[in-house]
Amino acid sequence: MAKDSDAETTTPQPLAARLAPPAARDGLLGSVRTAARVLRAFSGGDGVMGVSEVARKLDISTSTAHRVLATLAAERLLEHDATTGKYRPGLALYELGANVTEHVDLHAACLPVLTTLRHRTGEMVHVAVLDNLEVVYVERLESHQMLPVFRRVGHRLPAHLTSSGKVLLAALPPAELDRRLGGGTLVAWTRRSITDPDRLRADLAAVRNRGWASNVEEGQPGITSVGAPIHGADGATMAAVSVVAASQRLRGNVLQQTVGQLIEAAAVISVRLGHRPAR
Question: Which of 116, 127, 151, 275 has its CB surrounded by the most CB atoms within 10 Å?
Answer without folding.
Answer: 127
